[in-house]
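mind reviewing this stuff:

——
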Amino acid sequence: MITVVLYTHPEDESLGALRALLEGLQSEVPHRLVTVDVSQNAGLAEKLAGRTPVLKIGPYTLEGDLNRTRILIALRAAAKGKAEGRNVAPRRATATDRFLYWFSKHWLLVFNLLVGLYVGLPFLAPTLMEAGLTTPAKAIYTVYGATCHQLAFRSWFLFGEQPAYPRAAAHVPGLKPYGKATGLDENDLWQARRFLGNRQIGFKVAICERDIAIYGAILLFGLLYALTRRRIPPLPWYLWLLIGWGPIGLDGFSQLLSQIPHSFIPYRESTPLLRTLTGFLFGFTTAWFGYPLVEESMRQNLKALEARFHISRAVYGDDHPTP
């Protein structure tokens, strides 16, 4: 027997006549009628506003002029499809739908936990090195080496004489340059990547200064977004490009281009402060631009899933999450 789903609203007229019509067709095409009141679900009410009554007969959706001929044709087609082995039943909510529903409600918590873990673990690496636990520390360095250059002269250090050891070309007052502090060649990038530090200098955080600022800023916005109950509107795209991309692009590309042999741009090395500031602006504005858009998408997912659960409860009697 096929299932016919009748979507109604309390304000619909002539429902009695429609139900009588469907009852009269039972002798020609046996079916099970399930009525869904869309006013009991915000997602369905929004989707079907002004369109009810609507009939869902297998893969066929009928609305408007619901006369006997149209309904009978759809019933016969759906019955034929079922006899041929095609699935014509309404879609049943699944465990995947349950997970998507949970994620759509808690995505911000998940994002904050993941970003917090990502930006926090790099600080564990120098802590483990200081404690003499070099094997797990080096494992962290190796993992993060796939996502960051880890150049020592562009990284923060813990447990040492200075928080950072920039190149001499950065001209940072009060900080001993990387080459002088370590005795290493400032132009040997591979060596700067491999250098983890020592007990005098301290040990390197597993991602660079700019990456820490980027992901730290994303985490900060995520926490602020949670505290404001996700009411912060998205940052306009042009401000994201101007404030987020502009400074980091100017700082990064001018530094890169200036260090190419025979460059027409005077040689420059960005300072830890400038790398942190531009990274923070990029991370914070990126989250500000993106998180409200993700929230809107998740709200739409919730509406669609709640509607699916509502139908599944009506058709199959399933117990699914409710808003």
Observations:
- The domain at 2-90 is CATH 3.40.30.10 (Glutaredoxin).
- Residues 155 and 209 are 5 Å apart (CA to CA).
